[in-house]
Amino acid sequence: MLIGVLDSGIGGLTTLAEIVRVRGGGDYVYFADQAHCPYGNKSAGEITAIVRGGVKRLIDVGAELIVLACNTATACAIDSLRTEFEKIAFVGTEPSINTAKIYGNKLCVLATPLTVRQPRFARLLTNVDCFIPDCSALAAEIERSFPHLTGAYKTADRLLSPCIKERPDACVLGCTHYCLIKDHIKKLLRCPVVDGNNGIARRTRKLAGASTRPATIRFISSAPDLYNLRAAADMILTQRNIWC
């Protein structure tokens, strides 16, 4: 089975790496929609249309299961995608707030403005005390400043400085881009930092099964400049990369 993985840019590579590790291999095509990055500052209608186009590209190259390695894409589009593409299995990404509750109910939740505004996100906030900073610039800064990430670290420092005083029990990363600065956030907040990549990987393995075949990964981008995607893939993935 060919598995498609979609994200607005390089953040979903962290998800793909975990899927490959958990499944043991398999065949993948990764679509980085860098021409429309970041997703989190657009409207829900725009994101639904954009993600639908990306999904069609993945289906056209043979993907039978598609992972939306993006919280914003999942929050805005996954319900309509499941209705329209009934023969395709979809795995979504949501902030791991329930997982973070094992550390306590006082949480710092990092998510894009559009994710925060969706009903799917609101339903996750039951019985938690959340500090939700304005992360409108963070994903774009991570995409722009990779691989050095100096700008992203400065942006995170500014956003999270009020949260340091709140002493949260845990921090939830509600965007796969944020996983690329997870260690920095952990040092800054001095608390457990939770992302959803392992849960996504286990769900993908449940639907597609494990694999004993070496991983092959094909990469597609909606933007002409593949420098950031190549650099990120070289750092995050150890499998053979097949570019097109």
Describe this structure in words.
Helix 1 links the parallel strand 1 (2-7) and strand 2 (27-32). The protein has helices at residues 12-23, 44-60, 71-84, 97-100, 113-117, 119-122, 138-145, 150-166, 182-189, 197-208, 227-236, and strands at 2-7, 27-32, 65-68, 89-91, 106-111, 129-131, 170-174, 193-194, 216-221, 240-243. Helix 1 crosses helix 10 (197-208), helix 2 (44-60) packs across helix 3 and helix 7 packs antiparallel against helix 8 (150-166). With 244 residues, it is α/β, with parallel strands linked by helices. The protein is globular. A six-stranded parallel beta sheet has the order 4-3-1-2-9-10, with helices on both faces. A four-stranded parallel beta sheet has the order 6-5-7-8. The protein starts with a strand and ends with a strand. It has two domains: 2-93 and 197-243, Rossmann fold (3-Layer(aba) Sandwich); 97-194, Rossmann fold, CATH 3.40.50. The mean pLDDT is 92. Helices cover 45% and strands 18% of the residues.
Look at the helices and sheets and give the structural class: alpha/beta
> Strand count, sense and closure of the main sheet?
6 strands, parallel
Proper CATH architecture of the largest domain: 3-Layer(aba) Sandwich
- The CATH C-level name of the largest domain is Alpha Beta
Let me know the number of strands: 10
Tell me the radius of gyration. 17 Å
Query: What is the third-level CATH name, the topology of the largest domain?
Result: Rossmann fold
| Helical proportion, percent range | 40-55%
